[in-house]
Amino acid sequence: MIDFSKYATVRERIYAQEELFLSAYAKKSGESQGRSREEKLCDFRTPFQRDRDRIIYSNSFKRLKNKTQVFFAPEGDHYVTRLTHTFDVAQIARSIARSLALNEDLAEAIALGHDLGHTPFGHVGERVLDKLAPCKFKHNEQSLRVVDVIEKNGKGLNLTVEVRDGILQHKSSGKPMTLEGVAVSLADRIAYINHDIEDAMRAGILKAEDLPKDAVETLGSITKERINTAITDIYENSKGKNEVRMSSEVEKATAKLRAFMFERVYELANKSIQDRAERLLTRLFEYFMKNLDALPAPYDKLLDSYPADRVVCDYVSGMTDKYAISVFERLFIPTTFSLAEVGI
């Protein structure tokens, strides 16, 4: 039984519990490297729990529900959006962290923030902005910029070093500083490959028998089997070690499934909106570069500290699919003339 009288705060009790129950390789909440701006600690929450809450209540997180994952504006309620993808990643990352006695709160905070900087129209939008802007554009770097600079009217969320690092390094090419960050990177791949397969089947692009047979034999024939195989494999190959990794067999099968999805699904889905999304985002980017005074708050204030192309990328990348279309229509599509609008 926990002796509550031993701890002055709930946070201190959680610190003590982590020392008892988490792996020696886990990042303990009390060992965080802190924040860029020092803050008084919360009595009830650890620093990583506070980061999780800040991300969930951010405007950028709310907008994820209206951002494309793979299929733009699909007819149906069950297709994955950038928000449901984020929840998938958080769930898988927590499962990995729990199995290895890592810090679930840190893993969840990183997972919830990892795609905050994604553009409208999925990776199509990312490629368009990267081509247009001299500053270049990568969604993981933009996710970090969102939490550091853009949120809270330009003040940022002031997250911990460990969460910020995990957000920046979540791509497969990244090198997270914590095992929890590695768990999120693996969870991201596991999540998007599997829910994108489901969406492709729902859209009639794929059938179960189309999937690479050797990958299916290794990972499983349905989503829950493949996710369970991946998590179990990570546990078996990482328990008691200062690493989080898949076996070579499961890693190869996952890579083969990923390559198959790029060839058969992602390129097809991208082509379906590539030209229209590129035209739309190009016009918006060029318009705001020429009309910087049209940028709304807090982006207008960022011009005092950052190059114009960086700030225009901030604004355009933060748009949802629907909002980007509505801004385009407002700026470039003639509307029906109304006498009331001219005071007659």
Mean pLDDT: 93
Helix content percent band: 55-70%
DSSP strand tally: 0
Structural class: mainly alpha
- Work out the oligomeric state of the chains in this entry: single chain
Beta-strand portion reads: under 5%
Order of helices and strands: HHHHHHHHHHHHHHH
Could you tell me the radius of gyration in angstroms?
Answer: 22 Å
Instruction: Indicate the low-confidence ranges by residue numbers.
Output: none
The count of helical stretches stands at 15
Largest sheet: none
Give the terminus-to-terminus CA distance.
77 Å
Q: Based on CA inertia axes, which overall geometry fits?
A: flat
Quick take:
This protein is mostly helical. It has 15 helices and no strands. Helix 5 crosses helix 9 and helix 9 packs antiparallel against helix 11.
Topology:
Elements: H1 10-21, H2 47-56, H3 59-63, H4 82-99, H5 104-113, H6 122-132, H7 139-154, H8 161-168, H9 179-202, H10 213-219, H11 223-238, H12 248-290, H13 299-302, H14 308-317, H15 321-332
Helix pairs in contact: 2-5, 4-5, 4-9, 4-11, 5-8, 5-9, 6-12, 7-8, 8-9, 9-11, 9-12, 10-12, 12-14, 12-15
Structure notes:
The protein is mainly alpha-helical. Helix content is 60%, strand content 0%. The chain has 15 helices and no strands. The protein has helices at residues 10-21, 47-56, 59-63, 82-99, 104-113, 122-132, 139-154, 161-168, 179-202, 213-219, 223-238, 248-290, 299-302, 308-317, 321-332. Helix 6 (122-132) crosses helix 12 (248-290) and helix 10 (213-219) packs across helix 12 (248-290). The longest helix has 43 residues, at 248-290. The protein is flat and about 70 Å long. The N and C termini lie far apart (77 Å). The model has no long low-confidence stretch (mean pLDDT 93).
